Amino acid sequence: MTVEPVRVWLVDDQASFRRVAAKMLSAADGFVLTGECDNGESAIDLIRDGGPGIVLMDIHMPGIGGIEATRRIRAAHPDLMVLLMSTYDVEDLPAGAAECGAAAYVHKEHLSPDMLSRLWRAAD
Questions:
Q1: Which of these, 1, 48, 2, 93, lies nearest to 83 by C-alpha position?
Q2: Cα separation of 61 and 98, whole Å?
Q3: Of 11, 28, 34, 53, which is most buried with the most CB atoms under 10 A?
Q4: CATH code at 55?
Q5: Residue 1, in any domain of the structure
Q6: What confidence score (pLDDT) does residue 66 get?
Q7: In what order do the strands lie in the sheet with 6-11?
Q8: What is the secondary structure of the chain as a DSSP string?
Q9: What is the Cα gyration radius of the chain?
Q10: Which tens digit of pLDDT belongs to each residue from 68-111?
Q11: pTM here?
């Protein structure tokens, strides 16, 4: 029985972070980068087909930020797991982060295939 890889969408306005995260995902067993973009508006369009899968969503971006984009994506696709990302300490997260429907907050420095696997298995 072949297990399908978990689809991952990457949303971050920093191209350098997207490159690093994409390399990490390409080296990780069980995950496939399905799409990437640099703002919340594009994320909503990119993810219109939904899935099961994981959205790695930066909090602060131009236009619609990650918190509002997460609300909209989760309303349209409740089967998607959205992980908010930033460099904030947990106690410094912006208002609304806890109520937007994200499954968890991940500090960008701690993003790893192992961490994604644990969160995906826990949600299953």
A1: 93
A2: 18
A3: 11
A4: 3.40.50.2300
A5: no
A6: 96
A7: 31-37, 6-11, 53-58, 80-86, 104-107
A8: -PPPPEEEEEE-S-HHHHHHHHHHHHTSTTEEEEEEESSHHHHHHHTTT--SEEEEEES--SSS-HHHHHHHHHHH-TTEEEEEEES--GGGPPTTTTTS--SEEEEGGG--HHHHHHHHHHH-
A9: 13
A10: 999 999 999 999 999 999 998 888 888 889 899 999 999 999 99
A11: 0.92
Kindly state the tokens that stand for 20: 């690093």
Residue 92 located in a structural domain: yes
Distances (CA, A) of 58 to 26, 79, 116: 19, 19, 15
- At position 57, the amino acid (one-letter code) is M
- Residue identified by tokens 């930066």 is 58
User: In total, how many domains does the chain have?
Assistant: 1
Domain of 39?
6-123
Check residue 121 and give its pLDDT: 86
Residue 8: other Cβ atoms inside 10 A? 24
63 inside domain: yes
